Every structure is written in structure tokens, then in C-alpha cells.
Amino acid sequence: MDPSEIRRKIGRFRILVIGRANAGKTTILQRVCNTRENPEIYNSAGNKVSIAMLRGEHDIENEMIFRSNPGFVFHDSRGFEAGGESEFDKVKAFIASRSKETKLRDRLHTIWYCIPMDEESRSFTKGEIKFFSQCDTGSIPVIVLFTKFDALYDGAYRQLKSDGASIEEAAERAPKRAEELFVIGSQLKFLYNPKDIGRPPKCHVCLPNMDKDDADCGPLMERTAATLGNEVVEQLFVSTQQINLELCMKYAVERTLPSLSDRTAYNDEENIILIGKSSTWFPHIVQDVSVSIVLRAQAMLIDVVAHCSQR
Questions:
Q1: CB-based contact 246:13 (threshold 8 Å)
Q2: How far apart are CA 57 and CA 62, in angstroms?
Q3: Counting Cβ atoms within 10 Å, is residue 22 exposed (0-12), middle (13-18) or buried (19+)?
Q4: Taking the chain (311 residues) in consecutive chunks of 10 residues, what is each chunk's mean pLDDT?
Q5: What does the alpha-carbon distance between residue 226 and residue 230 come to, in Å, rounded to a whole number?
Q6: What is the pLDDT of residue 289?
């Protein structure tokens, strides 16, 4: 089944986003859906709900959908400090319920757990530890999003300066040094230590500067796709996301053209068919991106097919 057929039958990729207020959740979802607009919210009956009606209320069953990419459906949990034991039980029940849905379109496909890093040397909260120790998500992958990661740049800058770097050099190298320090720091050691955490996440991704216009969510798209473990869901996700063309191209080549190595030549008609099948991995380029990107994608596919045909 090609991605276009999967989207027609399943339609939507469903994500549970967990994290306390001010964790940067909405900003990240806006970047993922390439918009500055707020999402539209629908209740479990499919009726649109106004923001005014939601004040003071929170329902994890509500669906958040951005008009810029309605293929994604998001559910929001406030994090467990906000609602304590009650919120934790609601999340567990929601995950268990969605896991049992018979229709793939109604199941939960992945979980993004947002942990803001705007506090230097931040340790995990009791609620976060409880989730990763006690919440059984079954086959649903969990990815930790370390949001506001750029808050760690100041510490890295100061370290570089103390090591003798100039102001300009320290500023340039601070992002990379922050990542290096984080990799060997206490947070990741704790998160992936089976003695401390009974149910560690599949992986994590660091997301700096999500409030900037040129924010890069590409790594989040790549990590999410790599953890899904179900080819149908993987195809649905890759062809639904619209911000990482390279990811679409990667899967188009790997999944559509693997048999090319067994052939020494292709005629023009076969080349056109292969390009058409590969293009189903990024249907959004027809409507939502510039002509230059369309031409770039087509050129990449033609180059791949031509290269394999000449071998």
C-alpha cells in the first residue's frame, strides 16, 4: 500500500503531547505544522469548541488540529504537577483506551513528552520520574523533547570564555558545546538508566530556538519516524509531515526503489512510473510549497533513477 492510499484510508496521525504549562508545546506544534496560527479544537463528539468554552477546563480527549496541516491530530496533557494523581490516571487511561481502538486512525501513534531546559542543571520532577517509571505505553513510542534548549547556551558560553575563547568564538561555539555537555550530563544518564527509570523513552531530541522563524524541527521528524516500528504508521507520518522534504525523499528512495539494484536499465515509461510512486511520499508539495521545491524534488528523483539505470 503506497502512502497516498494509507492517508486516504487512515487519514490522520495522532500524537499525545505531555508537558507542563510554558514548556513550549504550542510553539513546537506550530513549527511542526508550519504556522503561527493557534489550533482549532474539537471535542470527542467532533464538535468545534471555542477557546472561551475551554477556560478553566481541560480534556485530554479534545483534538487540536492546525488548518495548515490537518493530517496531524494532537492531544494535550498538562503534565502531572498540574493535576497530580488525577492527571496521571487520566493519561494512563487515555493511552490504554487509544491502544485498544480497532481503527488505526483512532489509535495513538506516538507520544511527545516536553521537558523545558530553561533552568540550568534542571533535574527531573517527581511527575516526570513517575511517568517514565510507571506508565506502560505498550507499543506506542515515547520521545522526550528537551524544549528551550537554547537556555543552556549561556552556561556553555561562560565555560568557553573561562577556557580562553574570545567573545566571538565562544558565542559561535556555545550551541555545540551545550550539546556536548548535555550528552555527558546527569539528565541523560538518569533518563536511560534502567536502575532509575523503568520505562525509558525510545529516544530524545533537543529543540532550541523554537520561537524563531527559522526554527528547525527536522530532527524531531527524523527521530519520530525512526521509532514508529510499524511500516504503515511510518508511511502515514512521513507523508503527513511537510517540513522535512529530505525525510520524504529518503523514504521514497529506500522504500520505493530498493529493487533498482537488480536492474541494469529502465526505459522512459518505467522511469515515469517510479517517479510517480516515489512522489506519493510528499503529496503536499503539489499544493503547499514553492515551484522551486517541486523542481528540486523531481530533479532528485530523476537523478536517483538515472543513476541506477546506468549501473
A1: no
A2: 11
A3: exposed
A4: 64 91 91 93 88 66 94 89 76 94 91 88 81 92 96 94 95 96 92 90 96 91 93 87 83 68 57 62 55 54 56 51
A5: 10
A6: 45
Q: Which of 185, 232, 231 is nearest to 206 (CA)?
A: 185
C-alpha cell belonging to residue 310 = 546506468
Question: What separation in angstroms does the CA of 225 have from each of 5, 98, 110, 194, 300?
Answer: 18, 20, 10, 24, 21
3-state SS string over the chain?
CCHHHHHHHCCCEEEEEECCCCCCHHHHHHHHCCCCCCCEEECCCCCEECHHHHCCCCCCCCEEECCCCCCEEEEEECCHHHHHHHHHHHHHHHHHHHHCCCCHHHCCCEEEEEEECCCCCCCCCHHHHHHHHHCCCCCCCEEEEEECHHHHHHHHHHHHHHCCCCHHHHHHHHHHHHHHHHHCCHHHHHHCCCCCCCCCCCEEEEECCCCCCCCCCHHHHHHHHHHCCCHHHHHHHHHHCCCCHHHHHHHHHHHHCHHHHHCCCCCHHHHHHHHHHHHCCCCCHHHHCCHHHHHHHHHHHHHHHHHHHCC
- CA-CA distance, 14 to 111, in Å (whole number)? 9
Supply 21's cell numbers: 504549562
pLDDT given at position 18: 94
Which residues 6+ apart lie within 8 Å of 70 measured at CB? 12
Q: Burial, 132: exposed, middle or buried (Cβ in 10 Å; 0-12, 13-18, 19+)?
A: buried
Residue reference for cell 518505467: 270
Confirm if 127 and 81 have CB atoms less than 8 A apart. Answer: yes
